[in-house]
Automatic annotation (TrEMBL):
Keywords in alphabetical order: Membrane, Signal, Transmembrane, Transmembrane helix
InterPro entries, sorted: DinF-like, MATE_fam
UniProt-annotated location(s): Membrane
Listed transmembrane segments: 234-256, 312-330, 336-363, 544-565, 585-604, 611-630, 645-665
Signal peptide: 1-16
Pfam families reported for this sequence: MatE
Topological type in the membrane: Multi-pass membrane protein
Keyword Signal belongs to the record: yes
Predominant cellular place of this UniProt entry's protein: membrane
GO CC annotations on file: membrane
Keyword Membrane tagged: yes
Family of the protein in this entry: Belongs to the multi antimicrobial extrusion (MATE) (TC 2.A.66.1) family.
Protein name: Polysaccharide biosynthesis protein C-terminal domain-containing protein
Amino acid sequence: MAALLLLLSVAHHAAAFVPNGVQMPPASGAGHNGRASPLITNVLEQTGRLYDKQRYMSTEEIMFKDIAPGTILEDADGIGEVLNQEFSDSVPLTVNDLLRDDATTLASSNEEIAKQILDSLPTEPLEHANVFPDDLIKSERVVPDAPGFRQIMRFAIPAIGVWLCSPILSLIDTSSVGLLAGTAQQAALNPAVAVTDYATLLVAFMYTATTNLVATAQEKEKNCEEGKPLTTKALITSLQLSGIVGTALGACLIVFTKMLLRTIIGNDSINPEVFTAAMKYVRIRALGMPAAVLIGSAQSASLGMQDIKSPLYVLVAAAIVNLIGDMLFVGSSSPWIGGAAGAAWATVFSQYAALAMFLKWFVSKPSSQKKEKAEKLNISDAILELTGDSNDGVPRRRQFRASVKNIISSSSARRSKVISNKKEERNAAPVFSTRGFLHGRFRKRDLVSLPEKETALKFWPYVVPVTTTSVGRVSSYAAMSHVVSSALGTISMAANQVILSLFYCLTPLADSLNLTAQSFVPSLFAKRTERAGADALKKTTGNFIKAGGIFGALMVAAVACIPIFSKFFTADPIVVAQVNSAVPYLAGTFAVHGAICASEGLLLGQKDLGFLGKAYAVFFAAVPFFMLRIKRAALSGIPNVGLSSVWQVFMTYQFVRTILFILRIKQIEAKTEKNVIAGAYE
């Protein structure tokens, strides 16, 4: 009886080291039901739960039930049943309850049972034992590092090129037309640029889908040195779909130009010269829509693969070509290549030049990547000299002995540098380049081929929610242009075009945070149910909001300089005065724009598309409602209603978006934290 009690005591305490699901087989190798006992079933799961729970409980609070609740041992001659009946599941786990010597004394009476118990015990005191090894936990819970503030800034600043390409071309057009063609031609750009630029926002789903799909494929193939078939397929499909979408968009603009302009202008008494110039501008720009959409998708794919240099190269090339074209065409007296029409031709030429450069960039490998003829090395003589006793090998053998001594003497010094070396390796990670990525896998004629149906369908989930979001944005800008064109006159139209051109050139400074968040957040969001993943996601959110604040401050500083440079965009002093009157409201608008873009990118990266779609559906109706009230006030002759009133409404719209998006992010964080805590106690 004493031996039985001793066996029960040792088995009970041994069970403390056996996580739930780890069953000890009996001596016969099968339980009372004749089935072989599984050795380990869910060690990793119990390890992870204890790992999470220890964040919220002290060591003393971790009870025996937390480690081995329920049935512990398979029924070996009735021992398992006795254990479950005799001992409570709430007995605390203490350090010195388990004596290895007690288990050793059982070896003579029952070697098999004793061997099973001995193998399950730690070989060192419990306070020093590594019951749940770190490598076991880490192998099961690999979570990407949260991008730091500097990493976000290093990525977001060059990413500005993706958003800046189209606005910089429009700004060059505005400046050239205002200085070389007069106020009427510049006024025509207000509704015309509104139609072309807002139309491209409606295909923004291509850019969002491309960034997310390419980034996801890149993450899956991060250990694949060559080929990357999933990433390649996503990129090629994006280019093919972009060509189709861009062609359809251009055709719609050509057919519906007159109707769209009348909707924007909303005034049949508009100056015929202004309306005719706007018609020409839109129809010419429509010819460049296929190239515009292709460029946007190619740049988005570059960001998805975290190549931040290619968009800048394309931006510089397009801007140079556009500037040269404006200088050649805008000042011409010809009605089809002068004035606003000349600016449109210059933009179209620059877009196709940029597209040609991008395609060549993708398919042409740099000379440094070309395979060089391998150098042949003769190691036979070196081995013979090192291992033999010839006189010719004496210097080599001495050098080898010195190298061995040097390795031994410097081993401790190298160990002391391990941590710093790892940090340097992370900071010095190689920069990926898309140059030559499609080399040998893409031909120019593939651009006009139909994409694979399976891959093309992956773009569909982004169409409706992102388009809804874009429509919400477009409604605000379109309502603004409508009010200015229909109620405030030609001078205000010209002034608003200058303001919008500056606005569109400054917004990309923060819009790049949107795509940057979509590049970093999805991999962290996938791990949000784990403590490490939730913490990394929360830290990333804070870093992006901080970056948004920095970008907002920079944009406000840039807006403060507008009164100094406004004279370079028009020769009319009245237009300059109206531009300067809107500067305070522009400053308020840009103060929160960085936070808006960062938070919207975080929501898109977490696939909160339903919320964004509903929010912009409300904005789609609300913002035009308040804009149209300004129109009625202006037409009624109410004093002090002008261009600055329009920008007051837009500034309020920005503040509302900021508060709404940040509250939504906080709500998601609270829900994630609740789920993590609940999972730790399961």
